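tokens incoming
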């Protein structure tokens, strides 16, 4: 008797999920509660555990979008010992098989089986193995980024064959191509590929367009002299890490400065709900993180009451979960203000888009040594441009500019962060 496994309810607002990756192949024996697949919603990635022990039979394929409650797979009764015995009875020892002559069909089937086993075994997922096989790439040469080093579909899509193989392929293509084809090939390959948008990417796209269309978004800019904070980090970073077990970065200083500035300008921490403005007396800071499957914004709860080390630990923990696709819906739901750091990618200046339903977002950028005038003299200082995008429907220009100026003052004189002045 087989058990039909259905897509579980993973959140109140989630109506469908996508089969991101099968972690167990069709026909594999699985234990109860063993993770057999990863499901992706428009908010997060979830693991699907087996509801009983037995033989797994796929019903849905990787990339399929299923509604909550739809059948995703079946688990048939069976055990490891039965499968092993059946395999032993049906297979001959390698020495016998080698001595026994094979027909053309048998040789072809054997070769095909060996090829499939080569790519399906090891750490490559079925979808990744298929892509690598089509590209002619050895799975052993690809570094996996998935769970336990598993080669994911994205790893396979991004993998490139060796230069020698590419060169051989090009030479073979040139020899068999017509003059017109050879001319086109010499000017460079013109290839296209289509890839289905993930649920997360579709949701990101939809939300960004909605924000642009439904908010009165403006951006104000300023610059921050980062030397005082950099001096503090250089002086105390070793002691800080030794005592707290975490590095001292810039994000904790910015988060503390934002929390203090939001106390003075509460409308920047507010949001619109229908015909009302909702003010929060707490600060839940969303930190924009670039994850393998797209941008996510996990939240540091009650950041206003956290110390620098607590904020650094929260950032490190959430960033690690984002990279491993382990963030839960609760960790990404809510938030009253967002900080995004494009400087880690080299961005000099940008206009970040508001993370709805919030009303403002602070953009950090890269630090560049630039000449600036201080006390009538030109000096070289590490400067950072900062940008505040805000919803003009509830935040006036005076409030937005004053908020950003206050953040600048606190960062350029970090003592104020400790004294709250």
């Amino acid at each position: 008797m087989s058990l039909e496994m259905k897509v579980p309810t993973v959140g109140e607002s989630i109506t469908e999920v996508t089969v991101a990756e099968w972690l167990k192949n069709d026909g594999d024996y699985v234990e109860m509660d063993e993770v057999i697949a990863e499901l992706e919603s428009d908010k997060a990635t979830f693991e699907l555990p087996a509801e009983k022990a037995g033989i797994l039979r796929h019903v849905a394929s990787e990339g399929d979008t299923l509604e909550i409650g739809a059948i995703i797979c079946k688990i048939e009764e069976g055990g490891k010992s039965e499968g092993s015995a059946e395999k032993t009875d049906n297979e001959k020892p390698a020495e016998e098989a080698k001595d026994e002559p094979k027909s053309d069909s048998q040789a072809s089937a054997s070769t095909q089986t060996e090829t499939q086993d080569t790519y399906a075994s090891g750490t490559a997922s079925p979808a990744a193995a298929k892509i690598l096989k089509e590209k002619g790439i050895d799975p052993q040469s690809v570094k996996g980024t998935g769970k336990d080093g598993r080669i994911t579909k994205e790893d396979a899509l991004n993998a490139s064959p060796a230069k020698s193989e590419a060169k051989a392929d090009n030479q073979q293509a040139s020899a068999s191509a017509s003059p017109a084809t050879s001319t086109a090939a010499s000017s460079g390959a013109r290839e296209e590929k289509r890839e289905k948008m993930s649920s997360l990417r579709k949701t990101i796209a939809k939300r960004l367009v909605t924000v642009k269309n439904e908010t009165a978004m403006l951006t104000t800019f300023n610059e921050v002299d980062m030397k005082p904070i950099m001096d503090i980090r250089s002086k105390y970073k070793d002691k800080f890490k030794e005592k707290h077990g975490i590095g001292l970065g810039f994000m904790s200083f910015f988060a503390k400065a934002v929390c203090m500035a939001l106390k003075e300008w509460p409308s920047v921490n507010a949001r619109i709900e229908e015909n009302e403005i909702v003010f929060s007396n707490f600060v839940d800071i969303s930190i924009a993180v670039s994850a393998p499957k797209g941008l996510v914004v996990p939240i540091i709860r009650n950041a206003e009451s956290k110390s620098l080390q607590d904020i650094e630990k929260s950032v490190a923990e959430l960033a690690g979960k984002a990279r491993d696709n382990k963030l839960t819906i609760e960790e990404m739901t809510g938030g009253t203000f967002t900080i995004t750091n494009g400087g880690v990618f080299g961005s000099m200046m940008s206009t970040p888009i508001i993370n709805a339903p919030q009303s403002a977002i602070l953009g950090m950028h890269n630090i560049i040594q630039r000449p600036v005038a201080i006390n009538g003299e030109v000096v070289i200082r590490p400067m950072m441009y900062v940008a505040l995008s805000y919803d003009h429907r509830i935040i006036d220009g005076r409030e937005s500019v004053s908020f950003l100026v206050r953040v600048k003052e606190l960062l350029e004189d970090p003592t104020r962060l400790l004294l709250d002045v």
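note: The radius of gyration is 28 Å.
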